[in-house]
Write a structure and sequence with these properties.
Length: about 725
């Protein structure tokens, strides 16, 4: 709240206009413009890759490089973290929606000319979900690179280690792009004897076996290929990716020690088209995926999944209203999936299909730059209404939604969204192969002790389609001043029936509601918990999100390699209400008070990205408040588990060993100047810099079982060193 008040004062006292660029800056910016278009004897230059709405926030080349990312996928992840709210942003390329924007996520960050965060109203213009944020990635006209990276890591406490290597080839030439890459990695196992866990009684005699692993050994091989090509007035996109993963662990199961192996392979392919059809901008994407997995040891089972899907989207301007265009968006999805599971003496086959159709209309009701005096007073006003229907093997449903975005003055944006829907169940939550995960320590409220259990992971084919109603209100201010100061305040309310969620903490109410999810031995000791997703009868969540962002001012027109960049993003979440009813007929459990598994009432995050010359620093700190989990709902007691506040800090420092200037003469003809050199880049990453560990105590103040230093987090602080080179 205080952040918004400060920004409001700044907005009144400081002009919002950016400084007028000098001639040198104009020379630098020139490549960002398309060739001039002549209209009525006047040359008009349109910014290349511009979206339908001006950006709320823009990252130029220097700011993108300051993120210290390996690929565009990491850039998007960092931007989504800055936006907050949890939902992933919709991605468009060069101001347009494309069939499969994911094919560009493997490109190097300097293949981007700029990245723009559009106002919340932009999602309606591009066919996104109401209130969804939109990120516009503008690619270089021409780009070429060969990159290699090697990463080695190890906890400062010793034990396990990791080693990985990446190779990548990337090229852009107008509408034609290609990117292929490969990855090899190995994470060694962490054995129980390498940590002081204080759990010698857990799992019977087998827990003392020296070979028991806390973290499995994992070997991974992955490769991908992505291509885009122009086809006359259309364009095509093709992607192919595959992965093989082997995991090996030695785990206690009751009084036994079991060798467990899990082998999984996945192959996916997609083909998409972007075209213009009778005035409609159309995107079609056909995708197919096949996977198989085999588990030996704890359970002998094989599973195979096959899926194919077709997604169609289209949009166009239907008419020009008095204030602006009316835009229509339509979308359709069709998918078929088959899952086969072979066990020792049984075989099961499950077929699943889904059909979905959506549509929306977006109208510009007022435009601040129009000739109307009333419109100039009102400002920009955009309204959207939409709906959809879906049918699947899990049932049918529909959706209706509406959104409004109002900009009463420059730098002030108010928007709201309202929706009611019956959603489908994602394939991953339904059909992911079932497997045993790495052993995890939980607090068993029934016995009052900490136990190490084998978690069952994977999909749940019995999930039902959830029904939900949501309301979101948001106020955004900025960016203002040369510091690009901006702030956001958002309110969200989500009410759901049969919502898909994770199993809450292991309280008496939870075990009574889902008894088949808990497996105990003859002595009543908990040995396994099924953590696959479940349907919760009803839930209600309300919260406030706030954020504050600013940048260090930079000289206009400064080259990316010479610029000093500093970006700071601060976000905070305050949960007003969170209740859940586990089964029909049961009362609501107040999770903020600790019923049905407690949750944190607040969390915050600070992210800093800085770059100067050859040096770069990326730091983040996250905090969550403490909370109580009651052993008996409705009352506090000495047997309650009180989780303490937790703060963790991550740090990354990079150094470019060879300067950009040293490679200037090696630029390819017609290719944009490189923002980074072809030399060696060294990076040091430290996760959990201060070696923080989760802590807890009982309601009577005594130490909580299962919360020793190496129990909840046996890794703690870890250090990674990476060497990256462009050839």
């Amino acid at each position: 709240m205080l952040w918004l008040s400060l920004v409001s004062l700044v907005a009144v006292e400081v002009p919002a206009a950016r400084p007028t660029p000098d001639p040198a800056a104009a020379q630098v910016a020139a490549p960002d413009l398309d060739d001039p278009v002549q209209v009525d004897d006047v040359d008009v230059r349109i910014r290349r890759g511009a979206a339908r709405l001006p950006p709320e926030t823009e990252l130029d080349g220097a700011e993108i490089d300051a993120l210290g990312a390996w690929d565009i996928g990491e850039v998007l992840q960092r931007m989504n973290e800055t936006l907050g709210g949890g939902a992933q942003a919709m991605v468009i390329i060069n101001g347009k929606r494309v069939a499969n924007p994911g094919v560009f996520s493997g490109f190097p960050p300097d293949a981007l000319e700029r990245a723009e965060v559009l106002p919340p109203g932009a999602a309606a213009l591009y066919g996104g979900a109401p209130g969804q944020r939109v990120i516009n990635l503008v690619l270089q006209r021409r780009f070429s690179s060969h990159d290699a990276r090697v990463i080695g890591g190890r906890p400062t406490q010793g034990g396990t280690s990791s080693l990985s290597g990446d190779l990548r080839r990337s090229a852009i030439s107008g509408e034609s792009t290609q990117q292929w890459g490969g990855r090899l990695s190995r994470d060694t196992a962490l054995r129980a004897e390498e940590r002081d866990r204080g759990l010698e009684a857990v799992g019977g005699a087998g827990a003392e076996h020296g070979a028991v692993t806390v973290k499995p050994r994992v070997d991974l091989v992955a490769a991908n290929l992505n291509l885009t090509r122009p086809l006359g007035d259309s364009s095509a996109v093709f992607s192919l990716n595959g992965q093989a993963r082997n995991a090996y662990s030695v785990v206690p199961f009751g009084a036994d020690v079991v060798d467990s192996r899990l082998r999984a392979e996945t192959l996916g392919a997609a083909f998409g088209l972007n075209s213009q059809v009778v005035g409609w901008s159309v995107q079609a994407n056909l995708n197919a995926q096949a996977s198989r997995a085999r588990e030996e040891g704890l359970a002998d089972r094989r599973s195979e999944n096959r899926s194919i899907g077709l997604a169609l989207t289209a949009n166009r301007t239907l008419m020009e209203l008095f204030a602006g265009p009316m835009v229509a968006n339509v979308a359709a999805n069709i998918s078929e999936t088959r899952s086969v599971v072979d066990r020792e003496q049984s075989r099961s086959t499950l077929d699943f299909n889904a059909r979905e159709a959506r549509g929306s209309l977006t109208a510009t009701l007022s435009k601040a730059d129009s000739d109307s005096r009333i419109a100039r007073l009102v400002g920009d006003l955009l309204a959207t209404v939409g709906g959809g229907v879906r049918t699947s093997s899990a049932g049918s449903g529909d959706e209706i939604n509406g959104a409004i975005a109002w900009t009463p003055r420059k730098g002030v944006l108010l928007n709201g969204t309202l929706s009611a829907s019956t959603d489908g169940v994602p394939d991953a939550q339904r059909f992911e192969p079932v497997y045993y995960g790495a052993p995890t320590v939980v607090f068993d409220f029934r016995t009052g002790e900490a136990v190490e259990v084998l978690p069952v992971r994977g999909g749940n084919p019995d999930l039902q389609a959830p029904r939900s109603q949501s309301l979101a209100l948001n106020a955004a201010l900025g960016p203002f001043t040369r510091w690009s100061l901006s702030a956001n305040l958002g309110y969200q309310r989500l009410e759901a029936e049969d919502g898909i969620g994770a199993l809450p903490d292991l309280t008496a109410e939870v075990e009574a509601a889902f008894p088949d999810r808990f497996r105990r031995d003859e002595d009543g000791r908990l040995i396994s918990v099924d953590y696959r997703p479940i349907n919760l009868r009803s839930s209600l969540a309300e919260g406030l999100n706030t954020s504050l962002n600013f940048n260090l001012p930079r000289p206009t027109g400064a080259a990316a390699s010479e610029a000093t960049v500093l970006r700071v993003a601060i976000s905070h979440t305050f949960r007003l209400r969170n209740t859940v009813a586990l089964l029909a007929g049961q009362p609501d459990l107040d999770r903020l008070k600790g019923d049905g598994g407690g949750i944190s009432g607040q969390d915050a995050r600070v992210m800093v990205d800085a770059r100067r010359g050859r040096w770069g620093v990326n730091a983040s700190a996250r905090w969550q408040s403490g909370f109580r989990t009651r052993s008996i709902s409705g009352q506090d007691s000495a047997r309650d588990l009180i989780t303490e506040p937790y703060t963790a800090t991550d740090l990354k420092v990079t150094f470019q060993i060879t300067s950009s200037a040293g490679r200037a003469s090696q630029r390819e003809e017609g290719v944009a100047p490189r923002r980074r050199s072809g030399g060696l880049q060294l990076a040091l990453e430290i996760d959990n810099l201060f070696d923080a560990r989760p802590g807890a105590h009982m309601g009577d103040g005594s130490p909580a079982p299962g919360y020793g230093r190496d129990i909840q987090d046996p890794i703690g602080r870890s250090v990674r060193l990476s060497l990256q080179r462009r050839f």
